[in-house]
Write a structure and sequence with these properties.
By secondary structure, the chain is an alpha+beta fold. The chain has one domain (about 1-115). The protein is built from three helices and four strands; from the N terminus they run ββααββα. A hairpin with a 2-residue loop joins β3 and β4. The radius of gyration is 17 Å and the shape is elongated. The protein starts with a strand and ends with a helix.
């Protein structure tokens, strides 16, 4: 069984996974790919906005705090996307070699059979 860490969190902020035999051709898989792209583009725009705001001597503390909060959210999204891609690469390598490896997911070590 394949698993994919989704680019959005579950209801209580925990990692959300797409489980099943479906792969890159499935509707939910494509939706997750599209969402990753949206989140990364929004993050890039936010970084540019943050740089502009940081260089503005008229920016007040409220604006800066709000931007820092949004940057932290964006970094969390980018980290989740990187974790998801790492796990997919590991699964691809495992399917090619038939070997099982440990993975690091959200602060805990998870073996392949536990993810499946």
């Amino acid at each position: 069984m394949r698993s994919r860490l989704l680019p959005w969190p579950g209801p209580n902020g925990q990692p959300a996974y797409l489980l099943g035999e479906s792969g890159p051709g499935s509707h939910l898989w494509r939706l997750a790919d599209e969402m990753e792209g949206v989140l990364l583009r929004m993050g890039a725009e936010l970084v540019q906005h943050g740089r502009t705001l940081a260089g503005d001597p008229k920016a007040d503390a409220r604006q800066l705090r709000y931007t820092v909060f949004r940057l932290a959210e964006s970094l969390t999204d980018a980290h989740r996307i990187a974790e998801s891609r790492k796990l997919r690469l590991e699964q691809l390598e495992e399917s090619e070699t038939g070997e099982e490896s440990d993975s690091y997911v959200s602060g805990q070590s998870v073996r392949q059979e536990e993810r499946s």
